[in-house]
């Protein structure tokens, strides 16, 4: 694996690992696809670390509970809690893994805050992005996969048991999807939009195509199934 260099806000980050983030609406298939990609990469010998936001660390699990299952949270408090969870996740889990050369697959990262708090909660995309970059010391992913599905399909997949954010209305979730599509268009060197409608196998093949160039050792489908 070669060294990866990222320039973010004038700051240069170098580490030997690979940082991939998965974004998309609720029920778009992120967790399912991350598991599939992780198995495939592990079969090839990669050291794969999975994380999620909110809730990738012990502290994060407590913050997640406050955010999703503990009643009202005002919009700015919400943005700050997501940023606090992110700061701790990056400092204690993601950065050390990247430094030792691991592949980190993250179920959501700063673009979730830009789409949900910045756009859908109308706190301002740039302000929320800056807050997140401060929290994560400027770390940007090597690649971000946008799993794109129509809002209603995601809601159907999530089902009736919804957390505080999932229970926000259709317009909120449509604003999230619109912002994601804009972000992906604006920064094509980092983002790949992957069509999330289709069987789990079909989507997994699309995800693999979207990241395969980052890996030197590419497992074939038969090696993975073996
Ligand atoms: P997310 O992490 O984006 O919320 P999940 O991976 O948890 O999404 O998927 C939400 C639900 O939809 C799960 O029950 C999962 O099994 C199901 N699911 C995921 N991908 C597909 C797919 N391509 N087709 C049908 N159902 C799917
Ligand atoms: P989660 O269960 O991880 O997502 P999903 O339903 O896609 O599997 O729930 C996290 C919720 O928090 C989800 O509704 C998106 C929201 N969220 C934000 O609003 N801002 C953020 O910065 C992050 C990371 C998540």
How would you explain this protein's 3D organization?
- The chain is α/β, with parallel strands linked by helices and 226 residues long.
- The chain has a single domain, classed as Rossmann fold (3-Layer(aba) Sandwich), CATH 3.40.50.
- The chain is 51% helix and 16% strand.
- It has helices at residues 30-43, 58-69, 75-99, 110-120, 125-135, 151-158, 170-186, 200-211, 221-225; strands at 4-8, 11-15, 18-23, 48-52, 103-107, 143-148, 191-195.
- The strands form 2 sheets. A 5-stranded parallel sheet has the order 4-5-3-6-7, with helices on both faces. Strands 1-2 form a two-stranded antiparallel ribbon.
- A hairpin with a 2-residue loop joins strand 1 (4-8) and strand 2.
- Helix 2 packs antiparallel against helix 3 (75-99).
- Mean pLDDT is 91; it is low at 1-12.
- The structure holds adenosine-5'-diphosphate and thymidine-5'-diphosphate.
- Adenosine-5'-diphosphate (ADP) binds next to helix 1 and helix 8.
Portion in helices: 40-55%
What is the C-alpha radius of gyration, as a whole number of Å?
A: 17 Å
Binned strand content:
15-25%
* Uncertain residue ranges: 1-12
Chain-averaged pLDDT? 91
User: Strand sequence of the main sheet, in spatial order?
Assistant: 4-5-3-6-7
Distance between the termini: 24 Å
In total, how many domains does the architecture comprise? 1
CATH architecture: 3-Layer(aba) Sandwich
- What structural category arises from helix and sheet content? alpha/beta
How many β-strand runs? 7
Q: What is the oligomeric state here?
A: single chain
Classified by CATH, the class is: Alpha Beta
Query: Going by CATH, what is the homologous superfamily?
Result: P-loop containing nucleotide triphosphate hydrolases
Dominant shape: globular
Number of helices: 9
Helix and strand sequence = EEEHEHHEHHEHHEHH
């Amino acid at each position: 694996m070669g060294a990866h260099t990222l320039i973010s806000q004038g700051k240069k980050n170098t580490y030997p690992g690979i940082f991939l983030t998965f974004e998309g609406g609720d029920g778009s298939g992120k967790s399912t696809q991350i598991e599939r990609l992780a198995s495939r990469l592990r079969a090839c010998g990669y050291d794969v670390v999975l994380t999620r936001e909110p809730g990738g660390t012990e502290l994060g699990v407590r913050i997640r509970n406050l955010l999703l299952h503990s009643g009202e949270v005002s919009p700015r408090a919400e943005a700050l809690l997501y940023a606090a969870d992110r700061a701790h996740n990056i400092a204690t889990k993601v950065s050390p893994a990247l430094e030792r050369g691991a592949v980190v697959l993250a179920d959501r990262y700063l673009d979730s805050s830009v789409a949900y708090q910045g756009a859908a909660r109308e706190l301002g995309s740039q302000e929320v992005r800056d807050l997140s970059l401060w929290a994560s010391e400027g770390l940007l992913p090597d690649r971000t996969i946008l799993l794109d599905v129509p809002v209603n399909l995601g809601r159907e997949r999530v089902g009736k048991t919804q957390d505080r954010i999932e229970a926000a209305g259709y317009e909120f979730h449509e604003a999230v999807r619109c912002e994601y599509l804009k972000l992906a268009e604006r920064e094509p060197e980092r983002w790949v939009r992957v069509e999330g409608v289709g069987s789990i196998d079909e989507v997994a093949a699309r995800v693999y195509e979207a990241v395969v160039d980052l890996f030197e050792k590419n497992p074939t489908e038969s090696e993975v199934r073996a």
